[in-house]
Design goal:
The complex is a heterodimer of chains A (413) and B (138).
Chain A lengths: L4 H7 L5 H16 L5 E3 L3 E3 L3 H17 L8 E3 L16 H16 L10 H4 L10 E2 L2 H11 L8 H10 L1 E3 L13 E6 L5 H14 L7 E4 L7 H15 L5 E2 L9 H5 L7 E5 H9 L10 E9 L1 H11 L9 E6 L1 H10 L1 H8 L2 E4 L9 H8 L3 E4 L2 H6 L6 E4 L2 H10 L4
Parallel strand pairs in A: 2-3, 2-4, 6-7, 6-9, 7-8, 10-11, 10-13, 11-12, 13-14
Antiparallel strand pairs in A: 1-5
Helix pairs in contact in A: 2-7, 3-4, 6-9, 8-9, 8-11, 12-14
Chain B lengths: L2 E9 L3 E7 L10 E2 L4 E2 L15 E4 L8 H11 L5 E4 L4 H10 L2 E7 L2 H4 L5 E5 L4 E6 L3
Parallel strand pairs in B: 2-5, 5-6, 6-7
Antiparallel strand pairs in B: 1-7, 1-9, 2-8, 3-4, 8-9
Helix pairs in contact in B: 1-2
Classes of the chains: A alpha/beta (413), B alpha/beta (138).
């Protein structure tokens, strides 16, 4: 990689040891991908919690903090694995909770805003067209690239921290114009009225093209999807396909026309998604013992408008005995939902609203599953039904209203 | 040399070990029990297989930001694979492997399934962008 004088000084340790280590690491990653230089970034968003970091990452972070690693650009944190107010009730490990509190303390000392949200793009920072950022998790990245036209690769925790220490990231992947053009075309010929329908679209396309550099171009949407629908579409594409970008003609900023979105690429595939294809997604799940003891609204965290809608669906209703419902959202959204009365409606039905977490990363989740005798996990999130497999749940995607019905009747169809 | 595979890009130390050739992609979050090093996702083609000290051949990367931290912690726990050899991968796999100093590569010719089987003994040389089959299984 070609280094500027400032970057060379960082590499020589003139900005301190943490910055030297950070830029050396970034150069190794950049070299792998053939990056020629760094690009300055304006915002960073990192995943860093004890569930994902483990004791190895914990020790590394403590050392970085002690070495006075201090971030120089605005940086926020993704959802974490503890909502401390519920840790005991969920049977989570007190020792791990203490480590999680330490991680938060280290990060704050390192100048990180511990916002604990995976919907930073809805609640905290909306980068503009062409703005370079360093974000993770995947749902945040695909939203940034696709809906805002900002530029980010998937960046893991250490990569984001390094970027926030040096103020830059290696220029490869989606920072480069040539990787941002469409590579396949998806014709949408379906009703797509529910968040889960958009997630199902992401599942169909993502499973067929598991490739970070695949960029689907959606054409023919019957109406422009709203932000929460784009969120579920993007999260599912990123989860099933490891994709970081999509276009939607007339909706996303780099897709005024099919020609512009493809940028001269000949599509490697054309897919047509009709109502039958969406129904086949729903009917494709094995219902196992038909138990409906766990329904989850999470992954990504719910926006305020999703909380409002869920509150309305649960208004005056009660969960079926033996069914547990978990909802996850950000600190800010939960607070606003409390003010606006949505939270009271959800609480009154008997659902549990967790803040600052996402369900699939909860510490001790496998043990929680065993202790509660959960087999099926039912959700309107295509992402979560895909991502949670290693915890041995049998997962089932259902539309939002169906999830509510299942939760209130205990009947899974 | 019994067979060789050329790699498109690679990072890390030269390593030797037993190959696991997977027909399915991989994510340390989706598929792996990160406390035992065993693939536990129900229905994964390698379900029940430990990746510890193995040279793992995966056609694709799935997900996920978790890989950024996960390999470092797997190494800390002594249950990390020796190398991750991908057909196509994503940046986080690479960031995670580099962070943990675990050998990683992307792009292969010929396809490993044409020349290798699980259990074969192979050497990965990132500098030379080359994998050598040293010994057949059994």
């Amino acid at each position: 990689m070609r280094l500027t004088a400032e970057e060379q000084a960082m590499l020589e340790g003139r900005h301190g040891e943490p910055v030297r280590e950070a830029i050396r690491y970034q150069i190794e990653v950049g070299d792998f991908w053939g990056a020629e230089r760094f690009v300055p970034i304006t915002n960073a968003h990192m995943m860093g919690d004890i569930e994902v970091m483990g004791d190895g990452g914990f020790g590394w972070l403590r050392r970085a903090c002690e070495q006075q690693a201090r971030c120089t650009i605005p940086i926020t944190t993704n959802a974490r694995c503890f909502d401390f107010g519920f840790a005991e009730r969920l049977g989570q490990d007190p020792g791990e909770a203490a480590k999680e509190r330490s991680i938060i303390r280290f990060l704050r000392e390192m100048n990180v805003a511990t916002t604990d949200t995976c919907i930073n793009y809805q609640t905290i920072y909306q980068p503009h067209l062409g703005e370079h950022v360093a974000w993770g998790d995947t749902g945040t990245v695909i939203y940034a690239n696709s809906v805002f036209g900002a530029r980010s690769n998937f960046e893991g925790g250490p990569a984001v921290l390094s970027a926030a220490l040096t103020g830059r990231t290696p220029e490869y992947g989606f920072h480069l114009e040539r990787h941002r053009k469409g590579t396949l075309v998806v014709h949408l010929d379906a009703q797509l009225d529910d968040l889960a329908d958009w997630g199902a679209v992401g599942k169909i396309v993502g499973e067929r093209h598991q490739n970070y550099f695949a960029v689907p171009v959606f054409v023919g949407a019957r109406r422009a999807p709203v932000a929460d629908e784009l969120k579920h579409l993007g999260a599912a594409l990123a989860s099933y396909g490891s994709m970081a970008m999509f276009h939607m003609i007339g909706v996303t900023p780099e897709a005024p026309s099919l020609e512009a979105a493809l940028g001269g690429n000949k599509p490697v595939d054309e897919i047509r998604i009709d109502d039958g294809a969406i129904e086949r997604v729903y009917s494709g799940y094995d219902l196992k013992d038909r138990s409906a003891s766990l329904v989850v609204f999470s992954g990504p965290q719910l926006s305020l408008l999703e909380m409002k809608s869920l509150g309305a669906m649960l208004r005056g209703r009660t969960l079926h005995p033996g069914t547990q419902v978990f909802v996850t959202t950000s600190h800010g959204v939960k607070s606003a939902a409390r003010e606006l009365g949505y939270l009271a409606e959800i609480d009154a039905a008997g659902a549990t609203v967790l803040e600052g977490v996402c369900f699939y990363i909860l510490q001790n989740l496998s043990q929680m599953r065993v202790r509660n005798g959960w087999t099926n996990l039912i959700s309107n999130s295509a992402k979560i039904v895909n991502i949670i497999g290693a915890h041995r749940f049998n997962t089932i995607l259902r539309r939002t209203r169906d999830c509510v019905e299942i939760a209130c009747t205990g009947k899974l169809h | 040399m019994l067979a060789t595979i050329r790699l498109q890009r690679a990072f890390g130390p030269v390593v030797e070990g037993e190959a696991i050739v997977s027909a399915e992609g991989f994510s340390p979050r989706y598929d792996l029990d990160r406390w035992s090093g065993v693939i536990t996702k129900p229905g994964h083609k390698l379900e029940g297989t430990s990746l510890r000290d193995k040279i793992c051949f995966f056609p694709t990367a799935k997900g996920g930001i978790a890989a950024g931290w996960a390999f470092f912690d797997l190494k800390h726990k002594g249950i990390a694979p020796k190398a991750l050899v991908f057909g196509v991968t994503n940046p986080v796999m690479v960031q995670g492997a580099v962070f943990a100093n675990i050998t990683i590569s992307e792009g292969w010719l010929p396809h490993p399934a044409e020349v290798l089987k699980t259990g074969d003994w192979v050497r990965v040389d990132p500098q030379r962008k080359l994998i050598e089959l040293l010994r057949r299984a059994g």
